[in-house]
Amino acid sequence: MFTRSADSCPVLAYSQDEFGALLGRVLSPSHPLQSEEFLRGRAEQLSGIKKALYQPGRHVLIHGFRGVGKSSLAQTAAYSLSTQRDPILVGCDDKSRFGSVMKDIFDEAVNRDPNVDKKVRETAFGFAKLPIAGGVKNTTEERAIVAPTGVNEAVRLVQFLCEHYASNPVIVIDEFDQITSRDEQALFTNFIKQISDRHVSARFIFCGIGESVDAIMAAHGSADRYFHTVSLGQLPYEARFEIVTDAARRCGVQIDETSVVRIARISDGFPHYVHFITEMLFWRVYEADNGGVVTGDLFERAMSDAAEGMEMRLRGPYETATQKYTDYAEVLWAAADGHELRRRSSDIYDSYQRIMRDRDGSALNRAKFNQRINSLKKPAYASILTGSRAGWYEFTEKVVRGYVRLRAEQQNVILEVDHPAERSRVNGFLAAGLK
Ligand SMILES: Nc1ncnc2c1ncn2[C@@H]1O[C@H](COP(=O)(O)OP(=O)(O)O)[C@@H](O)[C@H]1O
Ligand SMILES: [Mg+2]
After folding, report:
1. Ligand 1 atom showing the smallest separation from residue 72 Cα
2. Does 298 map to a domain?
3. What does the pLDDT look like over 256-295, one tens digit per residue?
4. Are 175 and 223 members of one domain?
5. Residue 5: inside a domain, yes or no?
6. How far, in Å, from the CA of 275 to the mean position of ligand 1?
7. pLDDT tens readout for residues 72-93
8. C-alpha 74 – ligand 2 centre gap (Å)
9. Which of 26, 31, 33 to mutate to test the pocket of ligand 1 (most atoms within 8 A of CB)?
10. Which of 309, 328, 352 is a domain's end point?
11. 210: three-class secondary structure by DSSP
12. Which of 101, 128, 249, 346 is the most buried (most CB within 10 A)?
């Protein structure tokens, strides 16, 4: 795939265009992965999904926090199981309904193979209840006026796709959590039950954040019989290392252990940060004209590039929460310390004291600290934290923790200093040799 290997082509032998294109292939900060070649740390889940989908009548449900890698796992599994034709990938938004998703599936199949549309017309295969017209001109207007319901028709539609698109297509329905209506969720559950009971050979993979799983399961008592459920957590340390070291090898960049560990630690297991910081870093290395070596100085610059260039979705809450008063940044860094996503306020206060000691700053007393941490739950502070009555706190959007850690690290504040698993894994991985 790569015309030049790292050995024969150190970083500076590339033109800027070539280097940019190479980075675009080996790092993917902004789009889900579709190939096993780049999917790290998910071998077990991938194999579980494949095994589950060999079994007729079984489907998959992947859930986990935003940004952990659900879409990547779903799409990679879908591609590797799709032998005849590409899988069909559709996403949901807050306007999606059961019928509109079915229409999207149909449209996607037509996109990939226009013959599907021709077949519908030839066979005058009509869908009265789905927003799909058969045997007649298929205008947007026509589709819009038809009521988008009808589990039976949707089953017929998918059966049709099995006959004319691929005999056992893999269909990914992503961001299922966007569908919040109980009635609509129940239609999906019934649909899956019908697909399975009627031996329709299509295989579905749903992705969604946490609660959507409960919803799909609650809608039908026996729904879990039809689903292989994958609960996806943050990416393990080794996988974070591999993303960086593999990209370094392919780009001809020499990177030291400390930098790899720092990127892995900052990311908090949300791979976007690993890809994005590495991308910024490699550009700095490219531009430094120093033979392709990562240095401490380049790392600092790359962190600033990453902090400034981060998407608003990840950067915005931190900026809102810290812009009014200076104290708040340290409180947030403390909240992002450790590897647990939910932390007791007393533990956060311990982290806070440690951070302030390291910085030779004077710490707020506990009462003032409590007042600050409570403020961080308010909309004026972007509701960046969520707290329970019992004194547990968590980041409202978990993936934002990575940005907070990046900002802390920029100030030389090291978070998650003594996570035992990190120590042993880091040592094990690094002992295996960082090339
Ligand atoms: N296992 C993985 N190995 C390497 N990179 C990954 C992995 N999983 C996800 N990514 C990267 O992380 C980012 C977020 O992944 P995505 O699948 O979109 O997460 P989610 O769907 O859970 O929000 C993407 O840029 C993707 O390329
Ligand atoms: Mg996704």
Report:
1. 17
2. yes
3. 999 999 999 999 999 999 999 999 999 999 999 899 999 9
4. yes
5. no
6. 9
7. 999 999 999 998 899 999 999 9
8. 9
9. 33
10. 309
11. coil
12. 101
Alpha carbon distance 158, 178 (integer Å): 22
Assign residue 116 the CATH number of its domain: 3.40.50.300
**Minimum mean pLDDT among 279-283, 318-322, 358-362, 370-374: which range?**
358-362
Ligand 1: centre distance to CA 402 (Å): 14
Among the bound ligands, name the one nearest to the CA of residue 275: 1
As for how many domains the chain has, the answer is 3
Residue 199 in tokens: 């031996």
Inter-residue contact 316 to 367 (CB < 8 Å): no
Instruction: Note whether 219 and 96 are same-domain residues.
Output: yes
From 198, 294, 301, 297, select the one nearest 248 (Cα to Cα): 294
The reply to whether 200 and 75 lie within a common domain is yes
Nearest atom of ligand 1 to the alpha carbon of 271 = 12
Alpha carbon distance 54, 282 (integer Å): 41
pTM, 2 dp:
0.90
Structure tokens at 302: 């790359």
| Residues across the chain | 435
**Do 274 and 418 lie in a common domain?**
no
> Beta-carbon neighbour count of residue 242 at 10 Å?
19
Residue nearest to atom 18 of ligand 1 (CA): 32
Q: E-assigned strands of 189-341? A: 203-208, 227-231
Question: Residue for token digits 């739950």?
Answer: 377
Q: CB neighbours of 250 closer than 8 A, spacing ≥ 6?
A: 2, 6, 22, 26
> Are 218 and 357 within one domain?
no
Domain limits for position 292 = 11-28+236-309
Look at residues 147, 152, 112 and name the one whose alpha carbon lies nearest to residue 132: 147
Stronger pLDDT, 412 or 422, i.e. the higher one: 412
